[in-house]
Amino acid sequence: MTAAAGVRRLAGVGPKLAERLADLGIVSIGDVLLHQPNRYEDRSRITPVAELWQGSPALAVVRVEGAEIRQGRRRSLLVTTSDGAARLWLRLFHFGPDQQARLAPGTWLRLYGEPRSGAYGMEMVHPEIQVVDSEAAGYDIVARLVPVYPTVSGVSQNRLRDLVGQALSLLEQPGFWLESLPADLTGPAVSMSANQALRRIHDPPIDSDVAALAEGRDPACQRLAFEELLGHQLSLRSRRRQIRADRAPAMGQPGRGLAPLFDGLGFSPTGAQRRVIGEILADMAGRSPMLRLVQGDVGSGKTVVAAAALLTAVDNAWQGAFMAPTELLAEQHHAALSRWLEPLGMPVWLITGKRKKDDTLLAEIASGTPGVVVGTHALFQEALEFGALGLAVIDEQHRFGVDQRLALRNKAKNGGATTAHQLIMTATPIPRTLAMSAYADLDTSVIDELPPGRTPITTVAIPNTRRDEVVSRIGDAVAEGRQVYWVCTLIETSDKLEAQAAEAAAEALSEALDGVHVSLVHGRMKANDKARAMNAFKAGSIDVLVATTVIEVGVDVPNASLMIIENAERLGLAQLHQLRGRVGRGSTASHCVLLYQGPLSDTARSRLTALRKTSDGFAIARADLELRGPGEVLGTRQTGAQEFRIADLVRDADLAEAALAVADDVLAYHPREAELLIERWTSAAAAYARV
Ligand code: ADP
Ligand code: MG
Fold it and tell me: Which protein residue's CA is at the shortest distance from atom 20 of ligand 1?
C-alpha cells in the first residue's frame, strides 16, 4: 500500500466517515498524515485534584464514588469522584445506560478536561474519560504532547488520532511514503526526511516548543511547507508547459501597425505601456498561446494596452474578445474602443445581457468576421459562438469567478483547432512571491508608471460626526467646477439595501446642497439608466454622483476630483484603493474623504492609516497581505488558487523564494520526483487545473 490509497483502507472507516473526512480535505491516507494539528495538549503529567486550576486543561486520576441523574435546567449525570485527597465532579449532559454502567462506584478513571468551579467544587464538563484497571494503571502514562486537529462534526478527536496512529504505523513500511525531495537539495528546508517531519508534527517529543509547532515555525513544519510550495510551483509550471504545447493563431502580420491607434489617442502612451504592448505582441506573434498577466495600478492605462493587442488580432484577421466584470464597465470599454478603433475601420460590438438576442450580430460573430467583441460574462454564454477567436482579454480578472474564467478558457479552445491567446489584466497588485505562487502558469508584465500630469490624491479620514462639514465641502468643490463621487457602502452585500441607502443619501445631498445636480447609480438600476447617469456625469451635467460600489472598478471620469466613501471602515484595503482610483485621473489635485463610523477596530484603523499614507498600489497590497493573509488577498475562492495545507505564504515567504529557485532544476533533472510532488500536493487543486 502507498500513501495514495484511499482512507477507506484504514480500519474503522466506512462510507459515512469517509464522506465527513472528505469535508476536511482528507481523501487518501497521505491526506491523513498531512492533516496538521491546530495545537497540542500537554499530557505529560497527572495533576492532583486539589491542584486543578480553573480553565487550565489537565490530566487527573480519580475513583468514582457515586453518580446520580440531576434534573436541572438540563438533565445531567453528576458523577462524584475523588483522588483520595480531594473531590472532583464530572458533569455529563449526553449519557446512556452504557455510560452509567461504566461509571460504577469504585471504578478508576483517567480524565482529561478543563476544570471549572461548579456548585460543589471543581468540576469537569464532558472530560475525555478512560477507564483504567487500578490507580497505578491510571498513573502509568506515556508522556505525550497530544495533537488536537481541526475537525468537523461527526469526526471526533479520538477518531482522528486513531486514524493518524494507523497512518503513522504504515509510514514504517518501505515504499509507503516515497521521499520526493531530490537528494541533492540542501539547506534548512530539507533538514529532515518527510517521514521524520510527519512523525514530529503528529507525535512531537515531549520537550518540543508547542507554540512553534502549532504556528508552523518548527523545522518539521517548515520542511513540509517547503515541499508543498515546491509541489505547487511544479504543478503550475507543468500546466503551463501543457498549454504552451497547444497551437495558437500566430499573429505576426504588422497590419496597419500601432501608429494610427496612437495618433488618435490624444495622448502619448507611457514608456511602460509601450514596453508591455511590445511584450504582448511578441507573444502573439508566436505559435503557442499567450498566457500573460498584466498588472497595472488603477489609472495606469491598461485599456490602451488591451486596445493595441485587440487591434493586432483583428489586423491578423482574427476576432478579439474583451471581457469586463460589470455592464457599466463593458459599456465604458465599448465606448473607448469604438472611439479608438472604429476610425481605423474596425467593428467594435457590445454584447451585454440585453443584446445577446440580436441574431444578426450573433451570426456575424459566428461567421468569423474580424472585429472586437466587448461584453460581460455574457460573452461566453452558450449561444454566443466565435467563428475565429484569436485573443481573449479579461479585464479586472480578480472580479471573475473561477467558473467564468474557465468557461472563457474553453471558448478560447475554438473547438480544438487552435487555442486563443489570453491577456489577463488586474489592478490588484500582488506581491512577487504571492504572484509567483498563484500565477506561475502566467507570464507577467507590469505597467509600473502612471501617465504624466497626475497629481497625487490627498486622503483624509473623518468621523461621521463631522458629516455636515464634509457636505458643505462638497458645495465648495462644486462651486469650483469640480465633480464629486459619493460612495455608499453597506456591510451586507444586498443590492437592495445598498440601493436604498444610496437613494437616501442622494436625496439628503440634493436637499442640503442648493443648485447642485445630484444623480444616482446603483446595481438595481436598468443598464440603460445606469449608462445614462454615467454619461451625464462624464459630460459634466451632473455635479455629484451618488453611487454604490458598482463604480469600484474601471470607471473613468477624469474631471471628478473629490470622493467621499461612507462607512469606509467596513471595506477592505484593496477595495478602498480601487474605489479611490476613480479620482486622481485628471490634472486637478484630488481628494478622498474616508468617512467612518467610530469607534474603529485596530484593523480598521490600520487600513485607514495605510490608505492615508500611500497611494502606491504595491505598498497597499503588501499592507493588505499582512492584515488579511493571502487567501483573502487573492480572493482564493475566486481565483482558484488553492489553499495551502501546511504552507503560509506570508510566514513562509522565504521558503516560497527557495522553492521558486529550485523548481526548474527539479523539473529538468528529477522528473520522477517532480511527478510525485505534483501528485501529492495538488491532486485537489488539479480539478481546476486540468479544465
Ligand atoms: P486602468 O484601466 O489601468 O485603471 P485606464 O485604461 O482606464 O486605466 O486609463 C485611465 C485614464 O488614463 C483614461 O482616461 C485613459 O484614457 C488615460 N490614459 C491612459 N494612458 C495614458 C497616457 N499614456 N497618457 C495620458 N493619459 C492616459
Ligand atoms: Mg481598467
Answer: 301
- Atom 5 in ligand 1: residue holding the nearest Cα: 301
Residues 185 and 232 in one domain: no
In a mutational test of the pocket of ligand 1, which residue from 258, 262, 263, 267 has the highest number of ligand atoms less than 8 Å from its CB? 267
Domain that holds residue 161: 7-40+155-214
Whether residues 34 and 171 share a domain: the answer is yes
The domain boundary, picked from 557, 591, 614, lies at: 614
642 is a domain residue: no
The rounded Å distance from CA 441 to ligand 2 centre is 23
Q: Is 183 exposed, middle or buried (0-12, 13-18, 19+ CB in 10 A)?
A: exposed
Residue in 556, 561, 583 to alter for ligand 1 test, most ligand atoms within 8 A of Cβ: 556
**Domain co-membership, 302 together with 444:** yes
Residues 282 and 361 in one domain: yes
What is the CB < 6 Å shell around ligand 1?
A: 267, 269-270, 273, 296, 298-304, 427, 451, 554, 556, 558, 585
- Ligand nearest the Cα atom of residue 449: 1
**Is there a single domain that holds both residue 89 and residue 110?**
yes
User: What is residue 433's predicted lDDT score, i.e. its pLDDT?
Assistant: 64
User: 10 Å Cβ neighbour count for 483?
Assistant: 24
User: What is the predicted pLDDT for the residue at 686?
Assistant: 38
Query: If you search the block for the grid coordinates 457515586, which residue do you land on?
Result: 66
Q: How many domains does the chain have?
A: 4
For residue 553, the CA-to-ligand 2 centroid distance in Å is: 7
Q: Which ranges of the chain have pLDDT less than 70?
A: 354-356, 398-406, 409, 414-416, 429-441, 490-495, 552-554, 628-643, 683-691
Q: Are residues 601 and 671 in the same domain?
A: no
Residue 587 lies in a domain: yes
Distance CA 207, CA 280 (A): 56
CATH number (domain holding residue 241): 3.40.50.300
pTM: 0.68
Nearest CA to ligand 1 atom 16: 301
Please state, in angstroms and rounded to a whole number, the distance separating the CA atoms of residues 544 and 231: 52
Would you call 260 helix, strand, or coil by DSSP?
helix
Hey, which bits of 72-198 come out as E strands?
75-82, 87-92, 108-113, 115-117, 122-125, 128-132, 144-148
Q: Out of 262, 304, 323, give the residue to mutate to test ligand 1, the one with the largest number of ligand atoms within 8 Å of its CB.
A: 304
Examine the domain organization and report whether 670 and 601 are in the same domain: no
**Exposure of 438 in the CB half-sphere (CA atoms within 13 A):** 26
Q: What does each C-alpha distance from 552 to 244, 398, 480, 565 come to in angstroms? A: 34, 13, 25, 11
E strands of 264-328, at which residues?
291-296, 319-323
Instruction: Please indicate, yes or no, whether residues 262 and 208 belong to a single structural domain of this protein.
Output: no
Which CATH number goes with the domain that contains 93?
2.40.50.140
Contact 380, 404 (CB under 8 A): yes
